[in-house]
Each structure stands twice: as structure tokens, then as C-alpha cells.
């Protein structure tokens, strides 16, 4: 507790440099104590810290505490944090839409704008590091030993269902949980380009809806979406693997 | 009070003697070789010793990490995520081509799952793209005892901390004052020397003196940064009436190139100390300084450069076509302005070794003074300079293609990534 406060008041870099030299184990034990045994409580304390403090808190505590939410290693979180700061030109600990739009390879992606929108929760213009990690966590590969995890706990962000929901939200602009013909047409136009006539696009859209629609409302709901894609290897197509 | 007097004079005497000794050593070992362009080899020995220490430091950190069963944070020049080998442009072309060519066939194929590819590609570029990472400092394979490059701070043992502390002491208390003194000497000599040369009548003698004053001062500045430079292929050095282009990593590039050759500089007129230096330099030989308003007018700039280049007696111009500082892992798009002039282009590739001190100037993060302080408190600046054979624009090439050709040649020689952007 004292050490965590110390970290905030004095320069974080200095403290983190000195502390491990003197006593590594003492640090983690003393931090574990006041927060009782529950990892959620301990983690709850950290939610008040944003950005750099968050990452450095994570590195002082045992890995298994705070990486539970995202289940990635310390070096991976440090790498993503340094990526976050290099995108954050305003240096205020949050990213805005302009920060994403500055990436040239994203600008040529037909779904670029929609992907950027996925980072920002409803009505907000800024995303902090935790929000950034939450969205990226959808793309973590599904490990074999997780498939048979406890069914009582909350569903992890990178489950097949959540990955599919992420893709569904890219289609569903008005967030009414249905992909209408218009929404499908918009995505088709962006992906296929200007060489196809409107009629052809329309017929593709109609055919796709016809194949998927089961309750006859001329729109694709999430369950119908899942059913159409049940043979597709979503886990592999919507996963990004770290090199180490 | 009277008791203090004998001590006072003793201290004053000691101070006087040590300063004299220091100054003589400085003169003999650093300034005199700089004037004549020779070297004692002290810097190379220093470099070898440092390399051995760095290797030992990394081993200790790896051992520390292994004891705790953790992985060290290691940088990867290939990126942090496993990427698909197909590029986005290729995939888009595939989809659109298959759509438009189906005149005879029925409607093109489209699946709801096609979106997955673009979604994932977009996420991959958000996590790790080729361009953004070139604007921040390169990460090192092994630790070089500078806290600014350390990502594995929790694996440092007591011995390493002591070594680090010693390093801090050496760098800040011994090397830094020495370097500042040298830099001061170099710059004041440059200003005074070029002003004096400016009073000479125009002729061969003036040119000779101007060249040597410039070279001498740049060599002193090079030693002020403890820059250890290796020049390759010096027979390809730029000649009069040509343009020298190089990749840009920091303002120090100018000093590095100018200490081995005599160039005409191109740049904006600044105020303050830079302005004084610029005004003094232009008295001795014609550099091309632009007013701030003129810089925006591209035709004016091109005209002045063309005039300078066509006068064969004038010096080769030094230009950095990237326009901004890049972190020395890649070469970015060259601006075509300098390639339209039609002169012979002498490409130069500069590659820094970041282990001894990262020369990259991240202008959004550090101002000039902070940057220079960081440079002067690193171990050394080590770099290699390759002079490439001259290139001219071919008849069927336009300026952009020529610029790209030169860029590829520089990237290939320096071992840098040749970026499309």
C-alpha cells in the first residue's frame, strides 16, 4: 500500500528501479496482504490508476493477479503499452479517433473507420489504455486449456461467441442487433469497390440475407449470423498471435 | 580568518595546477589531432571495453530472469505479432478483380465471413504497423547501462546497480563537462575562424583557409560528442556541382558528414546561436540559407538550388530529402524537390549503432537542448557512413522514380528497411 502510494508521488521510474534491488518478495507480499485473498479486490484497487501507473502496478504485483482479465504476460502488456504511447501524440493517456486515423495502413483498409469505432464506447471520444486492451483482448487466440474452463465464471473476451459478436457489430451500424439489407449493402460497397453495379450488389445482398434468414424478417440477427458461420474457423481467422 | 589564508592559497594553487594539466591534456589529445585529422585510437579502445561490459550486463540480467522463471523483455525487429504474409492491397485487388471480371458468370462470391480478414488486418495494423514505429527510438538487444533504454528493470541485481551507478558518475561528472568544453571550443572557433576568413580577399588562399577552418571545427565537434565514425568508399565522395543526399536521423548527421568533406549547407535562417553560426559561416563560403517565408515558395527554392549547382566552382549541396528525422531502422519516402534539379546525385547512407547512444532525435518528445544533453551523456555515438557511386536521372525516368531509385540504393547499403510510405 505504502509502496503503491510512493510510486505515485515520487517519480515512478526511480522507485521501480530501487525497489527490486532491495527486496523483491517483500514487495509482492505486502501488497497482497491488505487486499485480502480475492484477486478481484486487489484488481479493483488498481482500476483507479490509468496508463503508466497501471502497467507498472501490474509489473510489481505477481503476474497472476492483474493479468487475469486479459491473460497475457508482462512483456506483452509492456509492449502494448509502449505501442499505446507511441500512438498517443497528445500525451494525455488517452487515444482519440485522429490518433488511429494517423496510421497509414489503416486508412486504406475498407473497414478502417468501423474498426476504430469499435474502440470507443457509446458516446465517448477518448479511450484509455484499459479500454484499448479490452478491445484488443477479443483477438487473443483461444488456448486449448481454456476451452474446458469453469462455466460459472464470466465468458472471456476472446471466446468464439464474443469474437463473432465483435464482427457482427462491424456490420450492425445502428446497433439494433440486426443486420438490415442497407447495412449489408454498405459493407459490400466498401469491400467490393466501385466496379460492381448497384443491381448486382443488391442481388448479392438479397441472396446473402435469404440464405441466412430463418425467421423471415429480411434481416440477420445475431443467432442467424452465428448459425451461418458455424462451419467457419472463427478462432483462427479472428486471432492475433504474439511472437513471444 | 587569517588561518584560512594558507589553506585558501593551497586550494587555489591545486585548482590552478589541475586545470592547467587538464587543459594541456585536452589540447594534446583532442584538439591537436582534430586540427590535423589524425587519431590516437583512444576512442576505439573505449568502444571495445564498453562492448565487453554490456555483454556481461545482459548475461547477468538473463540469469536473474531465469532464476525467477520469467522471460526477459526482448525487442523484435520483425514486429510484436505474427502477421499474415499477404498484404492488404493484394487482397483488396483480388476481391475487386474477381468481382468486375465476372461479366459472363453470375454474381461474384461474397460471404459474411469475408469481413474477418479485413477486421483482423485492421487490428494488426493498430497493434503494430510499419510506419509509426519508425518515429520512436529503436529498442536494443542488450542493455547498455543507461536507464533510458531499460525495460527489464526488475531483473537487476546489486552488482549491476553498482555498475550502473559508476556509469552515471563517469558519464555525468567526467564525460559531460569534457564534452561541453569541447563543444564550446569548437563552436567559438568556427564562428571566429569563419569571420576572420571572411575578411580575406577572394581567391585560392581564402578557399583553402575556409575549408580547413570548417573541417577543423567540425572535427572538434565530432570529438565533443565522442563520435566514432567509419567512412566507407571514400573515393565516391561528392564533388563540386553535385547534390549530396543522405538519410536523416538527427541534426548530428550534418556534423558527421561535414567533418569528412566540404559542403554547402541548405537550411532555414534561425535566430539565436544558430543564426550567429549561420551568418558567420556564410562569410567564408557560400551556403544557401532561406528566409522562413521563402521556404514555402518551392519554385524560389528550386531556382536558388539550381543556380548554385550550375556554378561548377561552388561546393556540393547537402540535402536530407526525407524532410524529418527517422529512427534509423528504415528510409522513408524522399521528397522529389531535390531530384528535379537535374544535377548529379551523390547518395550517402548513414547507419548508427544504437548500443552506445541512440542518436535519433524524436522532435515531438525532446527539444534541441534536451536532445544535445542526452547525446552528451550517452557513452558514444558510433556510426558508419557509406559513400555510394553517383547517380543521374535517366531519360525515361521522372523525378519520383529517380528519388525512389536513390532511396532503394541507400536503404540497401545501410541495411535499412525501404518503406513504401
TrEMBL record, chain B:
Pathway: Lipid metabolism; Phospholipid metabolism. The chain crosses the membrane at residues 12-42, 156-174, 180-201. The keyword Acyltransferase applies. GO terms for cellular component: endoplasmic reticulum; membrane. Keywords: Acyltransferase, Lipid biosynthesis, Lipid metabolism, Membrane, Phospholipid biosynthesis, Phospholipid metabolism, Transferase, Transmembrane, Transmembrane helix. SMART domains: PlsC. It is found in: Membrane. CDD domains: LPLAT_LPCAT1-like (cd07991). Belongs to the 1-acyl-sn-glycerol-3-phosphate acyltransferase family. This is Phospholipid/glycerol acyltransferase domain-containing protein. It comes from Colobus angolensis palliatus.
